[in-house]
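R.M. (postdoc): so does anyone remember the format we settled on? I'll just put the structure tokens first.
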């Protein structure tokens, strides 16, 4: 037995053949360690069941357990109930929207004008024969997936407005609480034939329809480049003019 206190074992330990014999732990120390572990286990067990138990409940369970909470708990429960309601409403919206839907003129009042007051509605009036309209539809489809809390719809303009002029297309209208909060009419107002989805996102965010994570107008860089190009062109023309003036013969 390697744990026995024999002379032979002592010799083997001296030459490293047997490991040093473990010193017996103090009984009081062992008891303290055991009690400490038991206390930690009980604390974790209590915390598991006492810290915010309502967070594991659904709305029905919260209602049933309401009588078991004290005043502080009831306030916390009410706050948590409201949070869960908002999460549920958000989930319902995400299930309801999240895509660019086609509607007809007959559905306009129901889907747009009479939409819920807390819902932003973006409608695109278009014709399939106009390339810019197809580009806007493509961008709105992406934005509808990115911002499912907003309602994105499109409608062929003839089904909503008769004799609507092509120069006014694409037309994007933004509604909230049955009122028009923003409008972009024609190619220029919608962003031009080279419109990027980020630029359209910024336009909709400016009127409040969506909450973008873009930090600045993506069109700003393009505008700055155009301004710089015009300045360079103007400077180049001025230089050419001055050079031409120098080369002109002086008539006396």
């Amino acid at each position: 037995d390697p744990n026995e206190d024999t002379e032979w074992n002592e010799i083997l330990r001296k030459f490293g053949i047997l490991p040093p014999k473990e010193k017996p732990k103090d009984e009081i120390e062992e008891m303290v360690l055991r009690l400490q572990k038991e206390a930690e286990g009980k604390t974790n067990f209590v915390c598991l069941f006492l810290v915010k138990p309502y967070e594991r409940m659904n709305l029905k369970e919260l209602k049933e357990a309401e009588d078991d909470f004290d005043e502080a708990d009831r306030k916390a429960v009410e706050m948590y109930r409201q949070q869960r309601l908002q999460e549920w409403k958000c989930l319902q919206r995400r299930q309801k929207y999240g895509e660019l839907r086609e509607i007809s003129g007959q559905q306009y009042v129901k889907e747009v004008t009479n939409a819920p007051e807390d819902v932003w509605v973006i409608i695109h009036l278009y014709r399939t024969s106009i390339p810019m309209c197809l580009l806007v539809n493509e961008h709105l489809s992406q934005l509808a997936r990115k911002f499912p809390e907003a309602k994105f719809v499109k409608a062929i303009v003839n089904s909503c407005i008769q004799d609507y002029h092509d120069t006014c297309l694409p037309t994007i209208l933004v509604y909230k609480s049955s009122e028009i909060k923003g409008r972009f009419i024609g190619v220029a107002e919608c962003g031009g034939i080279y419109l990027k989805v980020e630029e359209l996102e910024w336009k909709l965010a400016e009127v409040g329809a969506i909450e973008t994570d873009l930090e600045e107008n993506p069109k700003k860089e393009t505008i700055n480049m155009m301004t710089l190009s015009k300045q360079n062109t103007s400077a180049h023309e001025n230089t050419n003019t001055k050079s031409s003036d120098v080369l002109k013969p002086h008539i006396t």
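R.M.: ...and that's the designed sequence above, right after the tokens. Also worth knowing: The first helix runs from residue 7 to 14. Residues 42-51, 241-252 have pLDDT under 50 and may be disordered.
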